[in-house]
Structures are given as structure tokens and as C-alpha cells.
Automatic annotation (TrEMBL):
Gene3D superfamilies for this protein: Tetratricopeptide repeat domain
Basic and acidic residues bias (residue ranges): 560-581
Domain Signal recognition particle SRP72 subunit RNA-binding span(s) in chain numbering: 528-584
GO cellular component, one term: endoplasmic reticulum
Residue ranges of coiled coil: 82-137
Gene Ontology biological-process annotations: SRP-dependent cotranslational protein targeting to membrane
Gene name of this polypeptide: Srp72
Superkingdom of origin organism: Eukaryota
Biased composition (Low complexity): 535-545, 595-629
Organism: Chaetops frenatus (Rufous rock-jumper)
Protein name: Signal recognition particle subunit SRP72
TPR repeat spans: 214-247
Alphabetized Pfam families for the sequence: SRP72, SRP_TPR_like, TPR_8
Biased segments, Basic residues type: 548-558, 650-666
PROSITE patterns attached to this UniProt entry: TPR
Amino acid sequence: GLWSEVNRCGQNGDFTRALKSVNKILQINKDDVTALQCKVVCLIQNGNFKEALGVINTHTKVLTSDVIAFEKAYCEYRLNRIESALKTIQSASQQTDKLKELYGQVLYRLERYDDCLAAYRDLIRNSQDEYEEERKTNLSAVVAAQSTWEKVVPEDLGLREATYELCYNSACALIGQGKLNEAMKKLQKAEELCRQSLSEDSDVTEEDIEAELAIIHGQMAYIMQLQGRTEDALQLYNQIIKLKPTDVGLLAVIANNIITINKDQNVFDSKKKVKLTNAEGVEHKLSKKQLQAIEFNKALLAMYTNQADQCRKLSASLQSQSPEHLLPVLIQAAQLCREKQHAKAIGLLQDFADQHPANAAEIKLTMAQLKIAQGSVTKACMILRSIEELQHKPGMVSALVTMYSHEEDIDSAIEVFTQAIQWYQQYQASQSRGANPKSPVHLSLIREAANFKLKHGRKKEAISDLEELWKQNPKDVHTLAQLISAYSLVDPEKAKVLSKHLPSSDTMSLKVDVDALENSHGATYVRKKAGKLTGENQQKEQGQGEVKKKKKKKKGKLPKNYDPKVTPDPERWLPMRERSYYRGRKKGKKKDQVGKGTQGSTTTGSSELDASRTASSPPTSPRPGSGAAVSATSNVIPPRHQKPVGAPATKKKQQQKKKKGAKGGW
């Protein structure tokens, strides 16, 4: 009776009614193994994993690990007790196919991707049922995770991408390798396959299809963001959020990516998006690196919103979780810099560099940047030179030389070049046997060192570098010329000997077709081709030449009082003061002028005696030739707008204006 009821309800999928029948059986015999097993299965089918696990743990004597291992491990897995599930699986005496399937899932959640890959390969090899497609999908997901989080180049598994899940996973693997364009094409194919497969079902609405496509569109937006198409990415992210997908993991990732686009702008929107990253269950949906990235961004957002205490709290928590990670200490240092505590920030970075020498290089670069911001360029150089693994890098050499040149410390700049060149010499000597060829980077450094020394007048010091370069390439005329120039100051005889190696003037002459050059597209002046003149054209040209020769100059205008009989004054071109017969002005000329002119006029300019002009009138523009010192804050009219002060025409106009003004005023 009761068992047949349980069997019938189980076949119909009515596990609630089946559970009632099982409970009646257990009332009769509470330790019935089969009834207990059925009860656990019914609870699992109804999603009551915690209650099912309680039943298993209560009846451990009856439900041994051999009998109920899979059900117990599955309940632990669904309750996100992943480590416990792993122990349960490993302690089982017999590894059934079901346990192996679950083992693969558990390994994936624990991010043990190598073991997971081996487990799924074994399953695919030894299984032949209707779940083969799902196993292949899981296998491709493992490969995608390896490519994304462990930067492992995935091997070609030879999987036929017939489903949109396989296409999607393949696209994720390509993103991990940085092949963004290929990944976008795969995602477009995945979208197409998804639409096709879902549209076949008449019960599926357009909203259902869009919800299923949300994860594909989210990955497309991420590719756009990586490609710098932030506006397109932002638009697509917001479209997905409006759909309100049920996947909290997807929403958390999208919200985080929007926050990274906003950075220190639009912080109000970022604060709203942070709430999506705090949703319940997010920690079980994302990988450790994804969760860590979200926490880093929360700390940065706290810094941008001037929540100093919150920023310190979050970054300190991150540092305790990952003591060797760079970002927490960099966030703390950035927060201190915002509070103008640069010395404290540098001290914090120095302590981290001492405790974690493996990450010291990046920390010291940050310290040097802070020193430069403070204006301590020499101290910044000292910090940079302490990074041994970067001393020989061309970028580091260039930066140090530029900084030392700015500080006018040429000796230290030359020392940087010398150390880098010596490093390459030692490295190449250790790598090559017998022969010691120079690498392009090594030769480039020697070239830059020689040019730097020549530029700063250190020709003697440049000789050894130039000789090395010339030895490597004896046909390099430019280097030879530089070497001769350097030796001319130190050893003129040696310079003469070397000058014999210079090519002759004949070999140096360039065979250039002048006409072709002038007629080229870039020519600014084109000479008219001088064609051969024959017959009439030649005579015409000659005739024109004769006309030009006979052309007379115009006669100069003579003065009105010119008398041809009188000899012109030979000193007429000299100023009056410099002529031999100049006797100076007559005395008493000013007295004679008293009383002349209009009524009330004086000889002194009225403007000089007008007190109102000195106080309120704007200063006149400086006279030509006067050394007018103008302060930086004054708004001086540019020279081309200034009217010449001494021009007679402007004086007349000014006088006329004054007269008119006086007439109206009286």
C-alpha cells in the first residue's frame, strides 16, 4: 500500500506526496534504510537540502557513507560547503559515476582546474549516455577558466561548437588570450545559436530569450570596454541591468565594470551600482579573483568619495587577506597622498618593499613618482637606481638620464649609461662562447651615450664609445666624422689618420636630377625650362633684351624754387645741425612769442597743467624707443594695435577733437 504510493508519486514527480507516505512508513519503523533514503531523495528534489543533510547526520549508524555518500556530498555542495563535499566524496569506498560527476563540479568550484580537466576527460572517455553534451560544455568551461584566471594557453580539445554554451565558453577562452576580435565573432555566433534553439519552443517569449542572452551580451560589453569603446559598453551594460536578470553573479560583474568605467567621475551612479555587488549569494557565484577585484574597487570608490576611514578599513582588510598583493598598499598610499601625507605614504611603501622583495620594483617606481611630485628629483633617481632588475632597461636609462640632465648632473647621467653598457657586456659574455656580438639594444645604448657626451662637450669621454661603434660598422661615415671631431681636440695626428678613411668628394656627390626634383609634387619653386632658341624666337628674345636695356629711368622731381644757374648746396643732404654754416637758434625767441596766438593760450601744453588728467586719465602708450617696463599683470595692447604717437596726422585729429569738446563744454 504505502510503498506502491511512494513508487507511483516518485514516477509522477510528486515528491511532496511521496514524502508524506515515506514519513508514515518511518512511523512504523524509524530505522528503515530504504525509507530514510527515499526521504532524503524527496527532500533534495524539493530543494530542502539543509533538512535532507539533517536526516543523514541524525541517522549515521543506519545511513553509512557507502549507502548515502552521493546524497550527502550533493547536499553539502548545494549548501556551498564545498570543502566538506570534497571530503565526503574522497571518503566514499566506491567511486560511482554520479560521484565522479559531482567530483568534477566540486573541483571547478574550488578552482582546481588541472584536476578538474583530468576528471572530465576521464568521464567523457568512459561514459556513453545522453549527458555527453553537458560534459563537453563543462570541459570547455574549465579550459576557459584556465585561460582567464591562470593565463594558460588552452589546448584545442576538438569540440564541435554546435551549442551556444560551447561557443560562449570558447569566446571566454579567446578573451583570456587577448584575441578580442575573434572572441566577439564567437559571441555573435553564440547569440545566433541561442536565438535559434530557444525560438523553436513556442512557450518561450522574447523576454525569456533576452534574459538568456544577457550573459552573452555582458561578455560582448566587456570586450567593447577592453577595446576602449566605453560608451558602447556602458550602454549595453545598462540595457542588461534594466532586464533585471535573476543571476546575481552576472549583475555583480556588470555593476563592477560600470564602476571601473566611471572611475572618479559619476560617483553617485557608482555608489548605487555597489549595492548590486553586495547581493546575497554573489560570493558563491564568482571566482576568487573576481571577488577580490570587486573589493579593490569598493576601496577605490571610498577614496574617490572622500570616505577616508572606509577606504583605510577596506584596504587593511584586503591586505590581511592577501599580504603579498600590491593593490591594497597602493590604495592606502594614494589615500595618504590625498591627505597631503606624502612622507607617511613613502614610508608605508618602503616597509612593504622591505617585507616583499619580489614586488619591490613596482613599489619603488611608485615611491619615485611621489618623490618627483614633491620636487625631489635626485632622491627619485636614487630610488630608481636601487631597482637592480630594471637598471639596464632602455626605458629606465632614458628616464634617469633625462632627470639627471634636468638637475644638470651630467656626471651621474654618464654613469647611468656606463653601468647599463657594462651590464650588457657581461650578459653577452656569459651567453656567447668565444665571439661577443653586440645586440641592437647594446649598440643603441652606446650610440645614445656617445651622442649625449658630445652634446655636453665631453668629446674625450665619447671617443671609446665612438670607436666601439665604428668597429661594429666601419662603413658608418657619420660615426667616423664624430670620432675625427672628438680626436681633433685630443690627438690631431690620430684625427688626420682617421680622416683618410673618409670617402672622397667624388663618391660623396649625389647624382640628382634637378629638373625631376623641381617638377616633383613637393617642389615649392619650379624653374622654367630653358628651351633651345632658334630662328624668330631667338631674335624675339634678343629684341626683348635690347628693349629692357634701353629702358630709361624716370627723372626725379625738382624743387619749386630750383634755379639751374645756382650751384646746389653740397651739404643739403646733412641735417641742419651738422652743416658748417649752422649758427644755432636766435636767443629770445620764446619772449617774442609771448602774447601771440588765441586769447588765453599758453606755451605750456594744457594737458600738462590739467590736474584731472593726471588722476583719472588712462596712461598713454609708451613712446617709441622708450624702455617701458611692463608688469606681468598689466593688460598691454599688442604692438600692431598701437597708433604711432608721433604721427602728425593723429596729432591733428586729437587737436580737432579737443577743440570740438571745448566748444560743446563752454
